[in-house]
Amino acid sequence: MRITVDVDDELLEAVRDYAVEKRMTLKAAVERALRELLASPAGADAPPIPVFRGEGVQPGVDLVDSQGLAAVLDAER
């Protein structure tokens, strides 16, 4: 299938260099990159999100108020 896609000049040059290095066509290099992108599980690059258990924040702590939060943290020292 033939399509038209606008690609950043530097990215296209890098793909061309890769294709020459691997002795493949530009089409084959783009297809390989797309297949590898689609084969990788979604979020594989994302670090795990820490999960904290407990009752939540202390009474009177407003997480939206950064200065108030800093004051509470400083008071605990």
What would you note in describing this structure?
- The protein has about 80 residues and is an all-alpha fold.
- The chain has a domain at about 10-40.
- Helices cover about 50% and strands about 0% of the residues.
- The chain has three helices and no strands.
- It has helices spanning about 10-20, 25-40, 65-75.
- The longest helix has 14 residues, at about 25-40.
- The radius of gyration is 25 Å and the shape is elongated.
Share in β-strands: under 5%
- Main β-sheet description: none
Question: Could you spell the SSE succession in H and E letters?
Answer: HHH
Number of strands: 0
Spans where pLDDT lies below 50 across 5 or more residues: none
SSE-based structural type: mainly alpha
Compute the gyration radius: what is it? Answer: 25 Å
Question: What's the overall average pLDDT, rounded?
Answer: 88
- The helix tally amounts to 3
Q: What overall geometry do the principal axes of the alpha carbons give? A: elongated
Separation of termini? Answer: 65 Å
The percent of residues in helical segments reads: 40-55%
Short structural description:
The chain is an all-alpha fold.
What is the strand and helix layout of this fold?
Elements: H1 9-21, H2 26-39, H3 66-75
